[in-house]
Amino acid sequence: MAHLRAAREQPTGRIKELEEEVKRLKMENSKVKADLERAQRRWERLKEGARRKRRPDGMNGISGEEPATIPEVVEEKE
Q: Fewer beta carbons within 10 Å, N or C terminal of the chain?
């Protein structure tokens, strides 16, 4: 009779273990999602900063033109 009780209690123990694992994995998943969102926001800020550095002063970026390059100064030897 004792072995029957143990057999009946074992599935509920397994269910509890699995429920705890689901809870743990949900928490881990939410942490990973938060880290991903932070990384995506940081990446967007970095991209925007790089775009701003490439724009010459006075260009607002609306025209879509490439920024003008500064010509090199060639010194002539006498």
A: C
32 occurs within a structural domain: yes
Q: Which helix (H) or strand (E) holds 78?
A: none
Burial code of 37-65, b = ≥16 C-beta within 10 A, e = fewer? eeeeeeeeeeeeeeeeeeeeeeeeeeeee
Q: What confidence tens digit (pLDDT) does each residue in 36-65 have?
A: 999 999 999 999 999 999 887 655 555 555
The answer, as to whether pTM is greater than 0.70, is no
In angstroms, the Cα distances linking 57 to 50, 52, 60, 73 are: 14, 9, 8, 21
The residue segments making up the domain with residue 51 are 23-55
